[in-house]
Write a structure and sequence with these properties.
Length: 50
């Protein structure tokens, strides 16, 4: 399934996407976990600013 997703993200004339991986800290334990999102390239800064 990953190959199909990559193929659809690379269509010509479509919106370019970026995969954003963010480290999120748990307030209870202090441990870090990672959150992955696929967003349009023009919204990357907005997602990272959250």
């Amino acid at each position: 399934m990953a190959k199909k997703v990559v193929a659809t993200l690379k269509k010509e004339g479509g919106v370019k996407f970026a995969k954003v991986i963010k480290a999120v800290r748990s307030p209870k334990t202090g441990a870090y976990s990672f959150k992955e999102e696929i967003v349009p390239e023009d919204q990357v800064k907005a997602v990272l600013a959250k």
